[in-house]
Amino acid sequence: VEVLADDTVALKFKSPTPANLIAAGQYAAYIIAPAAVEKGHNWMMAPNAIGTGPYKLGQVEQGQQVVLERFDGYWGGWKEGQFDRVI
Fold first, then answer.
1. Residues 43, 33: contact at Cβ < 8 Å?
2. Residues 74, 53: contact at Cβ < 8 Å?
3. Model pTM?
4. Higher model confidence: residue 73 or residue 32?
5. I need a surface site. Which of 1, 19, 48, 57 has the fewest CB within 10 A?
6. For the chain, what percent of residues have pLDDT higher than 70?
């Protein structure tokens, strides 16, 4: 672990490390649809959205930005004043 700033650290490993699996094994877990898993490793590692949240992936500019757009089919519904788009 290398401390870069008061609020930033760099984790350096001896070999490639599946950070998503490590994060999922911590105090929280992620819901991933079986259909996403069946698409394979390359699809999972590409900039694709996986989840059950209120937003869908709109646009990805690798290393620059991600645009999330309102998902009208969100099971939790929508209330007035919620953001329709997140960049």
1. no
2. yes
3. 0.52
4. 73
5. 1
6. 86
66-77 tens-digit pLDDT: 899 999 989 889
Give the long-range contacts of residues 27-30, CB within 8 A, separation 24 or more.
Answer: none
CA-based nearest residue to 33, from 44, 20, 46: 44
Tokens found for residue 47: 């900039």
Domain that holds residue 82: 2-86
Report the number of distinct structural domains present in the chain.
1
3-state secondary structure the chain: CEEEECCEEECCCCCCCCHHHHHHCCCCCCCCCHHHHHCCHHHHHCCCCCCCCCEEEEEEECCCEEEEEECCCCCCCCCCCCCCEEC
CB 75 within 8 A of CB 52: yes
